Amino acid sequence: MSSQLRVSRTLLALGVGLALMSGAALAQDKAANVQLPQQVLPTGAEDAVAAPAPAARSLARSATPSQEELIQQLVKMTSESDEGLTVEQRANGVEAINLKGQFMSVAIATPAANGGYVLGCATGEDAVAHAKHAQAVEAGKEPKVLLRPTAKQQPVLEEK
Amino acid sequence: MRTFIYGVVAAATMALAGVSSAFAQGHIIIVNVNAPGVGFNDPTPAAPVGGNTGTTLGEQRLNVFAFAANIWEQTLQPRTDIFVIAQFAPLGPNVLGSAGATSVFRNFQGAEYPDTWYTSAEADHLAGVDLNPGFADIQATFATAFPFYFGFDGNEGVLTDLLPVVLHELGHGLGFANFANEQTGTLLQGGKDIYSQYTVDVTTNKLWNDMTDAERQASAINVRKVSWSGINVQKDVPKVLSPGEPFVRINGASPQLLSFGTAAFGAALTPAGITGDVALVNDGVGATTDACEPIPAGSLTGKIALLDRGVCTFVVKVKNAQDAGAIAVLAADNVLADPPAGLGGADPTITIPSGRITLPAGNAIKAALATGTVNVTLGLDLSILAGTDRVKGLMMVAALNPVALGSSISHWDTAATRNQLMEPAINVDLTSTVTPPIDLTSSQMTDIGWFSDRDGVPDGVDNCIGSDTRPTVIIGTCNSKAGNDVQANGCTIADDVDQCAIDFPKKPLHYLACVAHKTDALRVQRVITAREQVGILTCTILNGLQH
Question: What is the ipTM score, two decimals?
Fold first, then answer.
């Protein structure tokens, strides 16, 4: 790599660093928005805006979401429906689908009797049911998992 | 300032992608998108723990992500940078975290299969370029309000070890996932995906990509009959899994194996097994087959007790049956769930083996008991590697009935022993190793093409990954000038010759005989000419003399 390129890289990194320190470039809108932080240098115009930037609003909103909002978020992120997803044609015959935050796998923790948690991974409708079950166990409405799974055991319930 | 550094690296690397070599080693880069003061940037002081040297909560979180990313990076050696956009944020109740691919690609240069979806991360790697510049390949969100353990040493105690959870979820984003809807059987926009290319129903012997939607829907609930066909997992299974699969068999002219979930208490099953006639429990109170009340002493002597799930705990039921003389217990489920879960509980006074069978199996035995005797054996089959199917001996994926989307198929079956990272249960005995002889995830990643040698034979059916693909067969420094064709099994002629050297080290005559034998076959098949065979043998002799 040439020294010129190294210098350019350093300058770029410093510039991006400044942008990141401003906080604006790091904001993420929603789960489906997965664009990487851009190199946005502060111009001072941001300071004149009374309301927070849209992404910042999103983060503020997500700070205290309701249970229902969280469930809806879970339903959306674990959906395996391709409704609304479209195939995008790219150059050279390449095709792409933006999954829009769907097809996520989620890790769910169910309380265990020893004070720890049994962990599972799921998506789709099972994920929501799984999470609701874990919440019910947490609330004492359903019995706790007796043992944490080990080498030969699956997460089994001391159930009736 | 780790957050800042990651952000800089991410953005800088992205911007410089155009000048980086297509074959340069890439990195798996965590892009922290938390706002200042929260998540990865949480300044709450924290004491270093288990090798994690972070001194704030945010630093420790980020260090775990970086540690997991580094494990995957060292394992997969990506050719391009892979961006994981990550944050800690509020999630649903008891949801620890989520992750997955942001997008999928097909028909890009370097894809081993046409018209087949690959995760963004793998597609970038195979293409050697970022197919979606400026966008992340994987997104991950983990819960802020959860008592994670942030060490790297597995000493989490009653806390929840974050590292294996992050490793597992990133594994899905890197390619351990299909894009089929198991409930409907449909594929993503009707298109094949690379995971489904190696998902085979061992009953129909059909790959998921080759099935109709109806066939796929049926296969999704073909319990313990859906497996992974990739050759690399096949090769590594004996190194990783232990022999011994629990079974329940109904004896008779046509023996029938039942799905079975073993108990966490009582005697373990043995290869010798335990055989006896089944007796349906009658405790004389309420639902008389639930075994929740004491059963008349001696009424089950020498019998294998069949009882129903419900009302009281499994240890109460099994203890009551044991006290009545039973030698083993089958607990019939009261809901449809196949494979059945095990039986939880603990009671050191229980000394007989027990386990759960499915609701239909329980009903079938009851019906048979109405007209005669039913003789069963509970045992441990040492001829089966735990986690492989009984038809082809392939590693099973999790086919569940009723289907559980996402938990189905895109995980290994829970029967695997030792426990595997990509089972739906993230078990406490997992290590941070993703390679054999500990774990099969890297083998699966090899099958789907992460280490493609671009010889035209997809790696999941390629016996020689990393082939010598030079145009002619070169042995040592000797060029035989024989064409070095790739054969249907993915091996080149040079690979075959090399294998002879590996098989017969320091045995030049055996080495020569091996090469002669192989080249004879190739000549007969008209893969090489007689002149080419002479060239190969000449080089073999010279190479043998040199060594």
Answer: 0.83
